[in-house]
Amino acid sequence: xxxxxxxxxxxxxxxxxxxxxxxxxxxxxxxxxxxxxxxxxxxxxxxxxxxxxxxxxxxxxxxxxxxxxxxxxxxxxxxxxxxxxxxxxxxxxxxxxxxxxxxxxxxxxxxxxxxxxxxxxxxxxxxxxxxxxxxxxxxxxxxxxxxxxxxxxxxxxxxxxxxxxxxxxxxxxxxxxxxxxxxxxxxxxxxxxxxxxxxxxxxxxxxxxxxxxxxxxxxxxxxxxxxxxxxxxxxxxxxxxxxxxxxxxxxxxxxxxxxxxxxxxxxxxxxxxxxxxxxxxxxxxxxxxxxxxxxxxxxxxxxxxxxxxxxxxxxxxxxxxxxxxxxxxxxxxxxxxxxxxxxxxxxxxxxxxxxxxxxxxxxxxxxxxxxxxxxxxxxxxxxxxxxxxxxxxxxxxxxxxxxxxxxxxxxxxxxxxxxxx
Length: 421
Ligand SMILES: [Zn+2]
Fold this sequence. Notes:
This protein is an alpha+beta fold. It contains 12 helices and 13 strands. The strands form 3 sheets. Strands 1, 4, 5, 7, 8 and 9 form a 6-stranded mixed beta sheet that branches. A 4-stranded mixed beta sheet has the order 10-11-12-13. Strands 2-3-6 form a 3-stranded antiparallel beta sheet, with no helix packed on it. α8 crosses α12. The longest helix has 28 residues, at 389-416. It starts with 12 loop residues before the first helix and ends in a 5-residue tail after the last helix. The structure holds zinc ion (ZN).
């Protein structure tokens, strides 16, 4: 990525430092701090090359009109604390080259990063460049992009019609989400469509993340999906893209409250946003209902079952349950419910069971009973019972692949020191 010549820092930067210090209580080091000045460091030909999952190479040149043999490089995420500080030598011709090892210390995948150069001179004088933003995107594939409003669809396999259909699913998905949950985020939305789950899982692993239960971590700046061009693409687009979009929107609206929500509620809303219904959801529900094997929602607060059949049923139940709540109490109820869970603080078994009282006037167990009665009223068609094996096989893949990646990445995460998003 080629950047133009740096702009100089605004002349107010020194003034801001003085004003800040004047508002501070007296400090022993105040005299020394007041003598420290911050000026613009001007670089020429700054260039950043991303080799995703391996290196970030930053090169530039500056006119050395001051005596220095070293420059300090600062690397950080957008709106985050500095991740990395490193002093590097200045070459005789004024050029610098900084190579960040992203294999050893993974950077957040698909995030906007900022890089800055700083020179500390004698007498407390500091020269610092403006931060240069760059996108830390998966550079292994020849991404193409189409956009509509704030939605940007990136893809590398399939024709233009494939991307157009994916974009249409995203537009309709946003409308679907908006019908039951307000979208407050005005951030541009970037969706990267991989052609297979392995490419996607590798992309996350190289960024120190995992594809947990088939989901992009909702805190990432981008949404990732795995859809193979072919006969099933429409169904996969209409389910996977709105589902992931819903998680992304919910995370940005709820922020710290996101992880206080029961899993049945998050997954129920994300599944309800889907434009198509998995064909065997209804028959799986009816079969479990008839055999008395429906899962209590109090058991679906912290996580879903890890076995493929249990996970499939948990998704089908959560979608049906949240749809029932919406139909019974109105479109606005889900926002009220998420706020109620947010206000209760950290989620545990008790708060999950009684968190529905504030928004719906009854505990979760009673709501569960009422939902089961509503199921009994639906007509049951035995011809709708299909073979669930293919869907259970898909769930098995979704559950096993991330577990594999999780084990592989555990040590990297620990070393990197970043918490889950
Ligand atoms: Zn989900």
